[in-house]
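ok new one. same drill as before - structure tokens go in, u give me an amino acid for every spot. 540 of them this time. try not to just spam alanines like last time pls lmao
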């Protein structure tokens, strides 16, 4: 039985009611946990008062965005094995982040990534570059979340009109700004913790229900999903268990796959909103615990996306998914409708909506903190701005970011959000990761190398994305097939932009007459290994 014979996707009244409950509940939580007056450190880091387990849940909530739940499930449902590669990449990335970045970054910094990158460099040019990359990456990431929100609500309310979907995206943006203005990092962290529990629990329930349909036989599930995909009445006629159906057609698609893999594995270690989460714990030990908790939960979740994606291909049907508002992003809600009816669909969709709200709030805090702390205070005011003024600027910035995200989300509406996230990962891997690794592990690295690396990675990745088939010249492009100014053949730029950023950082360093400050390099090494100076002394 598939959903091909219906155009109704649940009861809009039930869906709205469930949405309202989630929004009111999360807003109440934000208000309750932030009743006392907040200092600058509270707004940026939640006062660094969260345990490793709590922060691990929050990181999970931050990382498991709409792309992970809606986008990856949809990608597996439509592309099978090739879609599963998103899950593998997202998970492996956490191991990279844990071993190379998480602890030394937390130990060395204070509020933002720029604190680390500028520690032993000339402050202004490095902070400007780091803040610029943070703002751009956050914006690209926000586009994906906004697009996910538009597609999700369009499905639940049966809205196919683009103007109504644009209104929905505007509503999400407004709620995001309210979360940030009221709650800061503390309120956002609590929402992310609760959302992580709800998301993993909801996915677990859906996984069990899907397995029940196959007698808890994974092989039977995969076989039946394969047969459904091959059936032209319900599927796309392709074998979803066959590798490289999507990426193996030509040399360019193969290279695009390699580029995508680099972006997925290296990207999270350069994502500002994920890195900022490690500043919310009091010690390096808790930072490590955070990452371990996140790895376990993220790993379990992505295993479940395989079951949910294959379940959607079998029980919903690929053609029904493609025909629904939101297309690939609708696979998970439609599967919930098939498994548990309208109320279950409303609950799962409410969890997905809360996911989007929590992630965009975290992104907005990161971007606004970067502008206020790195640009306004450190560059414009030469570090002399009061904490209260800095937070005020951060709040104003969050409103501006909200408006820009709404406009961008309307443009990106209808795109697969897992794919959009992969573009954000590519920019993060190119602009931030090379400079972070050089800064923490190469004493010779200097200001010119850092600035060249950041700008080379940022500019090259953005330019290649703009002139790629992702934006124009293809059926799946953001601007459609009719508009065509694409000259870069790959759908993801990481294969070119990441090595270019590493090369630019190396050339910039060795050609600069200014050598790095030896004393600051030693101090940074000590801090990165011990956490000395990262926060106030605590009792063990």
């Amino acid at each position: 039985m598939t959903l091909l014979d219906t155009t109704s996707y649940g009861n809009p009244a039930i869906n709205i009611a469930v949405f309202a409950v989630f929004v009111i509940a999360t807003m109440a939580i934000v208000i309750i946990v932030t009743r006392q007056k907040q200092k600058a450190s509270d707004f940026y880091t939640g006062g660094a008062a969260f345990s490793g387990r709590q922060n691990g849940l929050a990181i999970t909530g931050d990382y498991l965005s709409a792309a992970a739940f809606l986008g990856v499930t949809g990608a597996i449902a439509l592309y099978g094995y090739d879609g599963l590669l998103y899950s593998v990449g997202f998970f492996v990335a956490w191991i990279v982040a844990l071993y190379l970045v998480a602890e030394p970054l937390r130990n060395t910094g204070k509020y933002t990534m720029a604190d680390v990158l500028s520690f032993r460099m000339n402050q202004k040019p490095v902070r400007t570059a780091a803040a610029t990359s943070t703002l751009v990456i956050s914006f690209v990431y926000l586009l994906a979340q906004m697009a996910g929100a538009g597609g999700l609500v369009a499905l639940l309310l049966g809205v196919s009109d683009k103007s109504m979907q644009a209104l929905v995206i505007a509503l999400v943006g407004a709620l995001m700004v309210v979360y940030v203005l009221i709650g800061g990092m503390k309120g956002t962290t609590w929402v992310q913790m609760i959302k992580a529990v709800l998301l993993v629990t909801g996915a677990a329930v859906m996984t069990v229900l899907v397995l029940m349909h196959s007698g808890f036989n994974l092989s039977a599930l995969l076989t039946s999903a394969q047969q459904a995909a091959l059936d032209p009445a319900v599927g796309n006629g392709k074998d979803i268990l066959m590798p490289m159906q999507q990426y193996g057609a030509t040399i360019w698609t193969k290279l695009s796959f390699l580029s995508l893999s680099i972006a997925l594995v290296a990207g999270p270690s350069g994502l500002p909103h994920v890195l900022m989460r490690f500043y919310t714990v009091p010690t390096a030990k808790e930072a490590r615990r955070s990452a371990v908790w996140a790895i376990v939960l993220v790993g379990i979740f992505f295993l479940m996306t395989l079951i949910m994606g294959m379940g959607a291909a079998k029980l919903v049907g690929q053609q029904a998914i493609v025909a629904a508002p939101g297309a690939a992003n609708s696979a998970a809600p439609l599967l919930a409708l098939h498994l548990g009816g309208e109320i279950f669909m409303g609950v799962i969709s409410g969890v997905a909506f809360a996911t989007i709200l929590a992630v965009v709030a975290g992104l907005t805090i990161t971007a606004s903190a970067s502008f206020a702390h790195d640009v306004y205070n450190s560059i414009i005011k030469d570090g002399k701005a009061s904490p209260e003024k800095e937070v005020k600027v951060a709040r104003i910035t969050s409103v501006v970011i909200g408006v820009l995200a709404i406009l961008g989300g309307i443009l990106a509406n209808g795109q697969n959000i897992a794919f959009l996230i992969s573009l954000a990962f590519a920019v993060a891997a190119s602009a931030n990761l090379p400079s972070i690794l050089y800064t923490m592990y190469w004493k010779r690295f200097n200001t010119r190398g850092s600035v060249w690396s950041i700008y080379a990675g940022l500019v090259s990745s953005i330019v290649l994305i703009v002139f790629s088939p992702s934006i124009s010249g293809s059926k799946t492009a953001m601007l459609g097939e009719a508009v065509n100014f694409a000259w870069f053949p790959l759908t993801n730029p990481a294969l070119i932009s990441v090595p270019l950023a590493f090369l630019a950082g190396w050339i910039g360093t060795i050609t600069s007459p200014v050598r790095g400050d030896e004393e600051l390099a030693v101090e940074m090494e000590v801090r990165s290994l011990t956490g000395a100076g990262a926060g106030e002394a605590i009792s063990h």
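The first helix runs from residue 12 to 33. and btw The radius of gyration is 22 Å.
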